[in-house]
Amino acid sequence: MNETLEKYNFLNRDLQKGKAYFLENIKRMQSPVHIYTHIDADGLCSGAILGKALYRAGIPFQLEILKQLEKEEIDKIATHITKNPKFFMIFSDSIYDFFWFRFHFFSSFSVVAN
What is the CATH code of the structural domain delimited by 31-108? Predict the structure, then answer.
């Protein structure tokens, strides 16, 4: 098997596991899925695609379009997590934003996920 196909199969297996986990657990959540995206072309498109997919599946969601993922936004998200820890959060714009958020969020707050 060539390397590209091997990587594709690995990615596909992980995506299927993630999808199964999401669909299994979304029924128990007490809040809509929260989608955070950026106000540029790829952010708006990715947020719209995710929103449309969730809408078609009958899954409630909330889409928030951010100018940037700044400290104020992180504080707002952290407050939401503290008040209602049972929800899914999706960052749809770029992996850089996710890692930036993860670094700043987890270095600023103590969060325990169940």
Answer: 3.40.50
